[in-house]
C-alpha cells in the first residue's frame, strides 16, 4: 500500500475519534471520512483490531515527530534535559480528544507498548534518584497538556505557553543547582 493512502486512512480514522470517539471507528465511518470505499479500508486493514493498532502507531509516530521538532533533533541525539524540555514545550499545545482517547485505550492492551516507547524516550517516568523537581515537572506538563480535554476551563494559548516556560525554568534551575 502506498504510504499516502495509508496516511489518508489513518488521519481520517483519527478525525472520527476526535469528533465521535473511539467506539465510532468502524470500516464505514473511516471509509466515509477518508473518501474511500469500505472494501478499500478492509483491503488494507482486514480487521478492526488491525485498524485500531495502526491508528495507535500512526498517532504515536506523529506525536514523536512533534517532540523531535520541539527538540530540534531525535531523542537519541538529545540529552535527558533537552528531551524533557521538548516534552514540556509540547504541553503548551493542548492534547486532542483523539490523542487522549487512544492513550487511554492503549492501557493494558497490546497497543500500550507503542505509546510507552515514545514516553520512555522523551519523558521517562520518575525514578527515586530524579528528585522532586523532575516529578513535579512531568505532572505539571501532563496536566497542562490534557487540561483542555478534561478540564472545565480552557487555558488561553499565551497562558499555556507561559506555564510551560515556568515548568521548564524549574528544570533549568534544578540543572544549575546540580553538583
Automatic annotation (TrEMBL):
All residue ranges annotated as the HTH tetR-type domain in the record: 3-63
Membrane-crossing residue ranges in chain numbering: none
Keywords associated with the record: DNA-binding, Transcription, Transcription regulation
Molecular function via GO: DNA-binding transcription factor activity; transcription cis-regulatory region binding
DNA-binding region coordinates: 26-45
PANTHER family on file: HTH-TYPE TRANSCRIPTIONAL REGULATOR BETI, HTH-TYPE TRANSCRIPTIONAL REGULATOR RUTR
Protein name, as recorded: Transcriptional regulator
Origin species: Litorihabitans aurantiacus
Amino acid at each position: 500500500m502506498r504510504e499516502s493512502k495509508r496516511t489518508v486512512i489513518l488521519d481520517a480514522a483519527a478525525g472520527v475519534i476526535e469528533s465521535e470517539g473511539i467506539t465510532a471507528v468502524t470500516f464505514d465511518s473511516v471509509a466515509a471520512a477518508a473518501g474511500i470505499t469500505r472494501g478499500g479500508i478492509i483491503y488494507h486493514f482486514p480487521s478492526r483490531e488491525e485498524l485500531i493498532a495502526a491508528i495507535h502507531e500512526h498517532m504515536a509516530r506523529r506525536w514523536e515527530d512533534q517532540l523531535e521538532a520541539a527538540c530540534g533533533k531525535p531523542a537519541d541525539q538529545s540529552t535527558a534535559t533537552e528531551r524533557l524540555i521538548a516534552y514540556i514545550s509540547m504541553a503548551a499545545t493542548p492534547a486532542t480528544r483523539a490523542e487522549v482517547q487512544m492513550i487511554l485505550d492503549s492501557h493494558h492492551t497490546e497497543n500500550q507498548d507503542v505509546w510507552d516507547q515514545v514516553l520512555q524516550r522523551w519523558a521517562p517516568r520518575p525514578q527515586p534518584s530524579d528528585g522532586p523537581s523532575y516529578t513535579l515537572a512531568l505532572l505539571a506538563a501532563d496536566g497542562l497538556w490534557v487540561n483542555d480535554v478534561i478540564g472545565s476551563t480552557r487555558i488561553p494559548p499565551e497562558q499555556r505557553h507561559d506555564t510551560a516556560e515556568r515548568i521548564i525554568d524549574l528544570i533549568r534551575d534544578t540543572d544549575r543547582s546540580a553538583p
